[in-house]
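Late entry, evening session. Most of the bench is empty. Finally got around to the prediction I had been postponing all week. Sequence below, unchanged from the version circulated by S.P.
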Amino acid sequence: MADDDHDTIRREFGEAVNMTPKELDEWLQSEESQAVGQKSGGAGESTGHESGRRIVELLKTKQADLTDDDYAHMRKVHGYVQRHLAQEPKKEDVESSKWRYSLMNWGHDPLKKS
């Protein structure tokens, strides 16, 4: 990938992920975090929860140490967050919704003020 692509991906990832590594790590340990999301084969860790663990590591990784695979995951995170934000529930209490919990597994808390 070109450096311009990397700059764009890092910026979009930074816009999508509004939780700190500590906030995300603590969230991922909660029962609510582990109870939501699509699980491969119906059991085990959800895709979002697994992604959340990787996001924590990405947030701690120095820019110079990021790999093309890391950038691909960062792009995936941005895409997921954008798609999921567009599906905000209208008649549900967002604060305790599966919608919010799923987004938080991907590092984005829609209720967090920037």
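Two things to note before I forget:
The radius of gyration is 14 Å.
Residues 35 and 46 are 9 Å apart (CA to CA).
Will write this up properly tomorrow.
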